[in-house]
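User: Predict the complex with fe (ii) ion.
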Amino acid sequence: MTSTIDPETNLGQLVRVHPEFAPVFESLGIDYCCGGDTPLAQACEENGLEVQPTLERLADAQSTDSTDPTDASLSELVDDIVETHHDYLRSELPSLERTVRKVARVHGESHPELEAIESEFLALETDVMEHIADEEETVFPEIVTLDDETARTDAEADRIRDAIDHLESDHDAAASHLEAIRRLSDDYAVPEDACTSYRNMLDRLQLLEADLHAHIHTENNVLFPDAEAALASA
Ligand SMILES: [Fe+2]
Ligand SMILES: [Fe+2]
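Assistant: Here is the predicted structure with fe (ii) ion placed in the model:
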């Protein structure tokens, strides 16, 4: 397929229109969620990648599906985030925590990095659980009300913007924990002596990373800009 992708488009916008680009960026180590404002060409440069081959990889992945995923209302976006990502975190994190603790206990002596992975994971888990509760109980209900296009006072609009800024800072902190886990595990490399639980832990940590990146992308690069647009036009 001939690529019509403009390398000056920012990463968040590219994944917004083409969700199928997310796995390509994941595999190239390009941060499209918290780094969603970065133009593709600049992201390539920062990651030591040539622009043209990257464009070709994206063109190969490009879906022919013509449905526009950008048309969702704020309420639909919020429901999708909660059902797809928050519910996954609520069911996955407690179980993954047990596996991380067990692997660190059993293999910690021969793999000292497991202790640091465990503490990064536990910090991430605590932060993320508080964060999604904050979103669901406080900020998302406010964002959903913006669908009704009722004008907000400046004070109300500023309060919603401040709450969104706070959530974005939380996202940066979560991304830092994920980066630390990736670095400590040497990009999730499976050691020769790894047992089934150890491999399972690495697989699930990597899935957690990909899911959190997609989750943060949908909030930072789709939901929050749409909420801002609704605030600006109300
Ligand atoms: Fe969320
Ligand atoms: Fe969030």
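The chain has two domains: 11-61, 72-233.
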